[in-house]
Amino acid sequence: MRLYLKGERAQAASIPLKVIESMGQISPPEIVVISVKSYDLEEAAKSLREQLGIHQPVIVALQNGVENQRILPRYFNRVIYGVVCFNAWRDGPGEVGHDTKGLIVLGTPANDLKNEMHQVAEIFRFGLNCNITDRLQDATHCKLVINQANALLTLVGFQRQPVDSMPLLAHMTMGLMYEGVLLLKAAGFKEHPLGSIPSWRFIETGAKLPTFLIGALYGFSTRKLGLNSMSQDVFRGKAATELEYLNGYMLRLAQKTGVPMPINETVYSFAKERFGSNFEPVSVKELWKIAQKKGDKRDL
To answer: Please, which residues bridge with residue 14 across strands?
Structure first.
């Protein structure tokens, strides 16, 4: 594996890895970290359970969203969930770039497995910032507010081609995340700090600023971003994405609480229809026009 810090690809470090075909090739592990996407999690968990037999290691689940909390307890009796706030990307097989700053927050729904969480955190801290929380659901849902933007940025081809209006993209991104904040407040979730992830106050302020001001701020911050994970999937032609587990989940929660999400609904509809092997990015202006028709009345 070749691993490099953003901007230093030429100095990528080569890291030897031991790759196995089955768990039977090694001694029974004490800890297993599962980092596949949610759409591959059921299959991975089932395969791993079969290979482990009666052995029950500690499972550390690193997925966006909450689907892993439904799937993994069916296969394992000790599961720790991680909220990953870390920007990394794959340039090719075995070549990965990453930013310097990042955070993993560990927790369990019942706030149990304290000793196991501290053990995992100590291991992670050899190379990552890692905290433990007793508010897993707040942390997981706060990350979902940010994850909603992955579909929007993918739809418009951000970081892959010129965008027809960066100020408008900034406005839509802030508005989409603000919808998520309003939804979580209505659903009873509380804000949870997640390292450098934007705060709810920052999102709320940005959503209410004139478009040209958001564009100036957003244009500065986007230079720091790599290609998000959904974009990496879509632009490689993968049929499966995290759309249902991120935007879809938030829209289903919105239906239960009665909170309108016109921007998210627009992004979700377009993405569900267009993501696939023949995907072509769409116009920001087109998305915005439809979102306005769905009920978004904020001034530009």
So the answer is: 2
Q: Which residues of 114-147 are buried (b: 16+ CB within 10 A; e: fewer)?
A: eebbeebbeebeeeeebbbbebbbbbbbbbbbbb
**For 90-122, how does the pLDDT look when each residue is reduced to its tens digit (9 = 90+)?**
888 899 998 877 899 999 999 999 999 999 999
pLDDT band with cut points at 50, 70 and 90 for residue 237? confident
* CATH 3.40.50.720 intervals, the chain: 2-133
Rounded distance between C-alpha atoms, residue 191 and residue 185, angstroms:
9
Alpha carbons 54 and 177: distance in angstroms, whole number? 43
Is the pLDDT reported for residue 159 higher than 90? Answer: no
Per the prediction, the chain carries an average pLDDT of: 91
Contact 148, 180 (CB under 8 A): yes
Question: What sign does the CA torsion over 68, 69, 75, 80 have?
Answer: positive
Looking at domain 138-293, its CATH architecture is Orthogonal Bundle (1.10)
Q: DSSP assignment, residue 256?
A: H
Nearest to 96 by CA among 221, 197, 196, 6: 6
Q: Which CATH class is domain 2-133?
A: alpha beta
Angle, helices 284-293 vs 262-274, to 10°: value is: 130
Helices (H), the chain: 38-52, 67-71, 114-124, 136-155, 166-187, 200-208, 211-222, 229-234, 249-257, 262-274, 284-293
**Residue 152, CA distances (Å) to 123, 147, 243 in order:** 35, 10, 10
At residue 79, the 3 state secondary structure works out as strand
According to CATH, where is 1.10.1040.10 located in the chain?
138-293
